[in-house]
Design a protein that fits this description.
1% strand; 14 helices; mainly alpha; single chain; 54% helix; two-stranded antiparallel ribbon; globular
Length: 305
C-alpha cells in the first residue's frame, strides 16, 4: 500500500467566498447570482482553465491577478465556445470511428477469414495483449449480438468484434497489423497514406477521450500520439500547420477531421459549421493553432478540394 500523501494546504470555499476571491484578484462580476449559479454547476477548478490565460503575476500578493477589465462573462463565453467546439469534434469522431471499425474488419476478414483477429502471424508483438483486452471486453459487455455467439461457445467474427472496440482499442489493433499493404488497404479510401492515418487515429483517441470527459480543448497541446504530418496529397499538406509551436494544437485535428469527413460524408457541411464557429472568436485562433490565412484554404470552402 502506498504511503499516505500530504493533505492539500487549501480549504474549501463557499460559492460566495469563491466570488469574493475572484473579485479580490480583479475579476469584474456584475451579477453575483449568475456567477454563483455557474460556480455551483461547473466547478471553480474547471472554470480556472478558462481564465488562466487572463491572469498576470502579482509581485505584491504572490497570487496571480486578472488583467484589467477581465469579466466573469468573458470566462463563461469562452467556456461555451469550447463546449460547442467539443460537440462539433464529437460529431465527426463518431463518423470516423464507425467507418474505421468497418474498414478494419472488412480488410482483415477478406484477407484472413472471420477470425483474422486470432491469427498472430498478422500482428506484431502486441497481439497477446490485444487478445487479453478483447476477452475482458467480452466478459464485461452484455450486448445481444455478442451473447448470440458466446453463449453457444462460438468465437465472434471480426465484424462483430469491431463493434465492441473503443477508438483507443481500434487504434492499437490498427497499428499492430504487420503488413504495410493491409494497413494501406484500410487507409486508401480516406485518401491517405497509412502512416499518418494510423498516427492520427492514435491522437484522435486522445481527443475523443478529452471530449467525452468534457475536458478543455481550445488551447490544449494535443501531444499524445504526436500525429505524423502527411506528405501528400498536396491539397491536405498545404493546410496543415507545421510550426513546432502550434502543430499539436486543435487546428491540425480539425483539418484532418475535415479531410476525412469530406470522404465519409461528401454532402456534409461539417467543415462549414467549424468555420462558422471559429470565425466567432478570431482572438483565439493563435492559441488554437490556426494559421492567419486558414479561411482561404480549399478545405474550408463550400466545394470539396
Amino acid at each position: 500500500m502506498n504511503a499516505p500523501r500530504n493533505p492539500p494546504d487549501k480549504q474549501a470555499l463557499t460559492f460566495d467566498e469563491q466570488i469574493a476571491r475572484l473579485r479580490e484578484r480583479g475579476m469584474v462580476i456584475a451579477d453575483a447570482d449568475r456567477a454563483r449559479h455557474y460556480l455551483s454547476q461547473l466547478n471553480y477548478y474547471r472554470l480556472r482553465g478558462y481564465w488562466m490565460h487572463l491572469e498576470v503575476p502579482s509581485a505584491i500578493s504572490g497570487e496571480h491577478q486578472f488583467r484589467e477589465g477581465t469579466t466573469f462573462e468573458q470566462v463563461i463565453a469562452l467556456y461555451d465556445f469550447d463546449r460547442h467546439l467539443r460537440l462539433l469534434v464529437n460529431d465527426a469522431v463518431e463518423r470516423v470511428e464507425v467507418s474505421l471499425r468497418t474498414r478494419w474488419a472488412h480488410v482483415l476478414a477478406l484477407h484472413a477469414g472471420p477470425c483474422a483477429h486470432l491469427q498472430s502471424s498478422l500482428f506484431n508483438d502486441h497481439h497477446p495483449k490485444l487478445l487479453g483486452r478483447m476477452e475482458r471486453l467480452y466478459a464485461d459487455r452484455n450486448d445481444v449480438f455478442l451473447r448470440h455467439y458466446l453463449e453457444r461457445d462460438i468465437e465472434p467474427p471480426i465484424w462483430v468484434l469491431c463493434e465492441t472496440l473503443s477508438l483507443g482499442d481500434l487504434s492499437k489493433w490498427l497499428g499492430a497489423i504487420k503488413q504495410h499493404s493491409m494497413r494501406q488497404a484500410i487507409a486508401t479510401p480516406y485518401g491517405l497514406h497509412e502512416t499518418p492515418l494510423c498516427s492520427f487515429i492514435e491522437n484522435l483517441a486522445y481527443v475523443r477521450n478529452l471530449c467525452a470527459h468534457h475536458g478543455r480543448l481550445w488551447n490544449r497541446a494535443l501531444i499524445v500520439g504526436q500525429p505524423a504530418l502527411p506528405k501528400n496529397p498536396a491539397a491536405l499538406v498545404v493546410q496543415r500547420q507545421r510550426d513546432p509551436k502550434t502543430q499539436f494544437r486543435v487546428y491540425n485535428t480539425l483539418v484532418m477531421l475535415a479531410w476525412l469527413m469530406r470522404r465519409l460524408s461528401p454532402g456534409s457541411d461539417w467543415h462549414l459549421r467549424v468555420r462558422e464557429h471559429a470565425e466567432t472568436r478570431a482572438d483565439l485562433w493563435e492559441d488554437m493553432g490556426f494559421p492567419a490565412d486558414w479561411q482561404g484554404f480549399d478545405l474550408w470552402q463550400q466545394a470539396a478540394p
